[in-house]
Each structure stands twice: as C-alpha cells, then as structure tokens.
Amino acid sequence: MRNIIKKKVISLKPSATLAINERCKELIAQGKKIYRFGFGQSPFPVPEKIVEVLKKNAHRKDYLSIQGLPELRQAIATHLNKKTKNTFSKENVLVTPGSKEAMYLMHVVFDGEIILPSSSWVSYAPQAELANNKTHWLQTSYENNWFPTAQALEKKIKSIKSNKILLILNSPNNPSGTICNNFKELAQVARENKIIILSDEIYTDITFNNRYESISTYYPEGTLISGGLSKWCGAGGWRLGFLAAPSELHDFLINVKAVASETYSTVNTPVQYAAVEAYNGDYEDYKFKVRNILNSVGQYVYKKLKSNKIFMNPPQGGLYVMPEFMNSKFKSSAELCDVILKDTGVAMLPGSDFGFKKDKMVTRLSFTDFDGKKFLEGINTHNQLEDEVIEKYAPNVVKGIEELSKWSKNL
C-alpha cells in the first residue's frame, strides 16, 4: 500500500513531555518505584470557588463564539493590562483550548522564519516544522540566565536575511526555571528590526519574586502573548488558554480565528464560564502559597543537588531546574536520562529535547512530584519553608533528589 503519511509527520515523535508521563505510568504499573520529575504538571488543586462555578455551568451545552466568551476575553484583557501596562480590549483576545493550541495556530498563520533560544520548550520547533516555518536556534548561556543577549539576537536576525521573523520568548523559562533580565534591550532590537515576538507567559504568574514581567511592556505593538490556566491555576486538563494580539496585529489575530473555526470551532463552554471567575476573582493568597511552596521546594532541590558533578542555576519561577552533569561517560543527554531512570527511578527529560546539542549533558527536572492539596492545607506561613516541612509534604522529591545525588557521585 502506498505511504499515505506526510514525510514531516513520519519523522515527528510524540511530545517529549507527554511521552515521559506515559512511560512513568507504565513503569509504575509494573511495580517500579519512579520519581516523576519528567512531566511539568502543576500538583495543586484548582481553587474550589472556580470549581464551583464550573459545576454551576455544567448544563451549558451551546457553542460559544469562535473567539470566546466576551466576558472571559474582557477578563483576560483586564488581567493583562494590569500586569503589562498595555491596552488590550476583548477584541484583542482569542480563547483557545490551551495555550499550546494558540501557539500552533499562530505557526499555521505566520509565514516566515522562527528564532528559538536554546533552551526552548519541546513543542515550539515541531509546531513550526508542521507549519512549514524554518527554525533558527539562538544559543544562550547560564551567565545570561539561558536567555539571548541583545547582541546575539541582532546578529542572528542579520544572518537570516528576511523581513518576516518571529522570536519566541518564555519567562520564567521551561526548561531552565530562570527569568529574563534583559527584556528592554531585546525589545529595542526587535523594534529596530521590525520582528514579531511571541511572549509565552504561561508561568509568569508563578514567578517567585512575584513580579510579572513581560517584554510586551517595552514592545507592545509587536508582541503576541499566550497564556492560560494550566500552571498558576492547576487546571492543565481543563485546556483553557488564550492568544492576545495588539491592535497593530489585529489582522493576524483575525486569520488565527479563521483557522480556529476550521479546527476546534469553540472552547469547552462550562470551562470558559469558570475561567471568568479565575481571571476576575481574588486568588492572590492561593498564588502566594503556590509560589512559596514551589520556591521552597525548588531551592531545596538546588541546594541538595548542586555539586562539583552537577551544575545548575537556582530556580526563579515555574516548575523546573536544569541540571548539567559534568562527565564524558555518555554520548548523549538522552542516553544519560535513560541510564538515570534505570539506575535510580528518577525520570527526567534530556536537554536535546529543548534545543541543546545532543552531547551537552543537560536535563530538565520538574520538582512537582508531591500532593499539592495536602501541601497547601498543611502550611500557614508566608516565610520560605524549612527543610523539615518539605520532607513531610514532598517525600518523593526528597527521596528522588537523594537518589540522584548519590548516583552523580560516581560520575
């Protein structure tokens, strides 16, 4: 029978983050002890009031507008304006089934070249490839928190020799857990060269210093913003995201909306009503506790794991650290992760999935293998948590890091 599958799809692997989650489930089902540091899912429950709104609207079955519930789009615009000092209206916002879909639709509509810093989230490059957009990797370093310098961005833009370029930035970053400290300089280069930026702000509400920083503040006319409920709200499975575009890119958003109409039609109706409460309600105390737990656990992991055999930056937001193993024993970071999983039960993702060269021994570690509901209920302090508290409420993280630390001593 003739091959009926497109070549670019045949070469496509399942998303690395989802694949590691499935592999962990299989190993656990076989009775093996696995420390689930590979999948970046929020461990915290959705705030109860938001769940109650979802329940009250479960009877709603009609299709909503393609662009999304007007009240929700206004709530998202108000949230962004407060955080970024911009002037979005509800017409600037498209509601999507998760921010991942928002980004894919963006790739489908955009006709040009994509710049990706290494490190970058695992789905940016495959989405670009599926949409026939060429990707260009921009190398970064730990000295600049794994974000590009303005000079490096300028040089990369000149080398591409195109007037249709889109740069994707994600801060706090997946996989490094670090934040970008040079948005203003990057924005200046972007404006001078008239490139578009997608600011992936899915983790920004859980920046540990509680400062929501967006490059759109410095380059509002050329920045698209994606975000959603999966990380700060613990609602990953609800699949509620958005894409926001400035008025200068309104035609682009209209075309994204047109593609959306031919794919998913509309986003889950009860979830959209619940999301209005998520964006309009006061959940600062919930966010503070979530940030405090993640920061405390992240700093614990950093403190216990960092050594002369393992190098990493301290986490500044999100769910991750990015250990680099100082050795020459393995041929690739994928091989390194396979051996670590076999020897210790610790599941991580290799740096090669995030844009690093295969022989760079970098991994991504998600420190969220704990019961977030019990953790939230068990603490009542706004101070950074003591090790004893982490050992009580995050025993899998503690034991997994202990196993990984012991293993690394033999490198």
Strand and helix layout:
Blueprint: H1 7-10, H2 16-29, E1 35-36, H3 48-56, H4 70-84, E2 93-96, H5 99-109, E3 113-118, H6 124-130, E4 134-139, H7 150-160, E5 165-170, H8 183-193, E6 196-200, E7 223-228, E8 241-244, H9 250-261, H10 269-280, H11 284-305, E9 310-311, E10 320-321, E11 324-325, H12 333-344, E12 346-347, E13 349-350, E14 363-366, H13 372-378, H14 387-393, H15 395-408
Parallel strand pairs: 1-12, 3-4, 3-5, 5-6, 6-7
Antiparallel strand pairs: 2-8, 7-8, 9-11, 10-14, 13-14
Helix pairs in contact: 3-10, 4-10, 5-6, 5-9, 7-8, 11-15
Helix run count? 15
Taken in chain order, the helices and strands follow as: HHEHHEHEHEHEHEEEHHHEEEHEEEHHH
If you consult CATH, what is the topology of the largest domain?
Answer: Aspartate Aminotransferase, domain 2
CATH superfamily of the largest domain: Type I PLP-dependent aspartate aminotransferase-like (Major domain)
**Low-confidence regions:** none
Described by the principal axes of the CA atoms, the overall outline is: globular
Average predicted confidence as pLDDT: 94
Determine the N-to-C terminus distance: 49 Å
What report would you give on this structure?
The chain is of the alpha/beta class. It folds into 2 domains: 7-45 and 284-408, Aspartate Aminotransferase, domain 1 (Alpha-Beta Complex), CATH 3.90.1150.10; 62-280, 3-Layer(aba) Sandwich (Aspartate Aminotransferase, domain 2), CATH 3.40.640. The chain contains 15 helices and 14 strands. The strands form 4 sheets. Strands 2-8-7-6-5-3-4 form a 7-stranded mixed sheet, with helices on both faces. A 3-stranded antiparallel sheet has the order 10-14-13. It has a two-stranded parallel sheet with strand order 1-12. Strand 5 (165-170), helix 8 and strand 6 form a beta-alpha-beta unit. Helix 4 (70-84) packs parallel to helix 10, helix 5 crosses helix 9 and helix 7 (150-160) packs parallel to helix 8 (183-193). The model has no long low-confidence stretch (mean pLDDT 94).
